[in-house]
Amino acid sequence: MTHATTAAPTATPTTGRPAHPGPVAPRATERLAQRPLPATAVRLDPEGHLGRWQRLNADATLPHSIGMLEDSGALPNLRRVTGEHDGPFVGYQFADSDVYKVLEAIGWEIGRTGTDAFDGFLDKTLDLLTRAQDADGYLNSFVQVDRPDRRWVDLRWAHELYCAGHLIQAAVALHRGAGRADYLALARRYADLVVATFGPEGRAGYCGHPEVETALVELYRETGHEPYLATARRMVDERGQDLALLGPDRLGAHYFQDHAPVRESPEATGHAVRQLYLDAGVTDVFTEQGDVALLDAMRAQWDSAHHQKMYVTGAMGSRHFDESFGDAYELPPDRAYAETCAAIADVQWSYRMLLADGSSRYADAIERALLNAVAASVSADGRSFFYSNPLHLREGHREEENAPSRRTPWYSCACCPPNIARLVASLHAYMATATDDALRVHLYSAATIEVPEHLGAGTVRLDTAYPADGRVLVEVDGELTGSLALRVPGWVAGLRVVVDGTPLAAASRADLPLDDGYLVLPPGTRRVELDLEMPATAVAAHPRVDAVRGSVAIVRGPVVYCVEQADHPDGPSVEDVRLRLDAALEVVPGDDPLPRVVGQGIAAEAVDPPLYGAVPAAGTATEVPVRLTAVPYAQWGNRAPGAMRVWLPLA
Predict the structure, then answer these.
(1) Between 212-223 and 226-238, two packed helices, what is the crossing angle to 10 degrees?
(2) 416 is catalytic
(3) Angle at 424 between CA 338 and CA 555, to 5 degrees
(4) Gap between the Cα atoms of 378 and 56, Å rounded
(5) Is 222 labeled as catalytic in the residue annotation?
(6) Which residues pair with 449 in a beta bridge?
(7) 562-606 confidence digits (pLDDT tens)
(8) Letter string b/e over residues 254-292, b meaning 16 or more CB atoms within 10 A of that residue's CB
(9) What CA–CA distance (Å, rounded) separates 547 from 389?
(10) Alpha carbons 590 and 584: distance in angstroms, whole number
(11) Which of 8, 119, 408, 489 is the most exposed place for a label (fewest CB within 10 A)?
(12) Given the residues 163, 207, 415, 416, the one annotated as active site
């Protein structure tokens, strides 16, 4: 099948480089509450919080990931297909997707900076993939060599469509960010085979691990080729209608989100990453085709996930056994699976819901996950990673394969590290959006945002150390003929706002005339000083979260804190301490731009009580005061090993 070529992108005014969309670029914008800006319209300052992370990603995480593709066997697996490697297949059957996620990260990085540092790797990998691809477009290194007679047979576990989805997303990123039509052609050959096999004229079928749905929609957006969208829609429509398509499994139909049709599934359930990737794809299908029943289901699932099944860090998934969501309020801190990929998937889905539905609650969720669950998954040097992200690590923790006590350079199931790389390389695309009459800012970090043409000309500059403090200076250089909408995060209680030198008469969030969580300022606004109060506070969980009843977590603004044994080497175990709320929580400087929090606690004197015993009478226990130092959860595990906890029992 031949396809028409896509139009060349126009140049970005301030950089001279081609303007291109980010990871989500809907065609049917009439249903959107707001529209993405071109990815090139936002530039994060490398000295700001998110900009530093992008720089670390480019300088450390991406090169490390490229090297690990060789060492882990992912690239040698593909050479088995071409006859250049005669060893056994290494890793899980979806190892090809690790290669594709790294390629996607490179695409966004080139689009962000114009770097040519990865060109050699891109050319060599394209040559390998092209030679490995079958004549009809099929490409899966495990099936092609080890199961050549089982193509499309095991939709439940083979991950063929899952890998195809990540190849498609890589190709879209490389086409948008680097202008690589060659990668797009490679992916389209595979996508055309998927359409012929599972599209409107093909057989019924969908992947046990959703992902290809959102990829096919984005490929439609990039090319305008309707069969890609129609195939994604068919997969969404068929899921949960016929249990025979995936077949029975010991983990049950819920694990695969195959227990009921999508429109009849109001609860987030089963394997967390599968659920969240599916939801991203469903939201994409709604955006392009307007089936309100899909959006209603997504609203219900979003509420289920975020109001009943989300950790305070923004992490998702409470069960190790099947990497799944648990029951409502089943959120044990020490047994939290909280897979990194689930937090990343939630950022991606919540962004799509932000576009479709418009509420600031989606941006609040993105911020919570980014600054806590996702950020904690990467070491300070950008080269080691958590797969599972517990909120409590006990002394003498027995490590599991994907739940080590320390971050590791890679995993046999290596889905998380390259997933981090592709998200961070595209972080700038999540900062701001536009409506017909307003520029809307969702995340705060030092950055420059180009004013969309329909709203004027020039730039909007954000100068801030956020989240180290809550001061954000917003300045318009040029002409903004539309409104300027600034998110006032849901955690904010007190704040100060000065607009063009005039203070607003508001001392709290409740005093402001907010539009669904946004402070909307009129056209012509030139300078806004936003000062969000950031005291350290203690928060409690819903009473039904039994695992942390009687405990609190320390937060400051959007940042969740924890206590580590590394800060209390000569004191009692942090597993034995209790926090006193009658003493103030003090914010003090830390080694990082983010400050630390100091509180007062108590601990019982060194006694080894029985596992079960009588309730101690009041005043009979001998306790000692403890000065507790809390650090941002995102920074834990970068020093000496030892216990850690987010939730602290109350004294």
Answers:
(1) 160
(2) no
(3) 50
(4) 10
(5) no
(6) 42, 460
(7) 999 999 998 899 999 999 999 999 999 988 899 999 999 999 876
(8) bbbbbbbebbebebbbbbbbbbbbbbbbbbbbbbbbebe
(9) 16
(10) 18
(11) 8
(12) 415
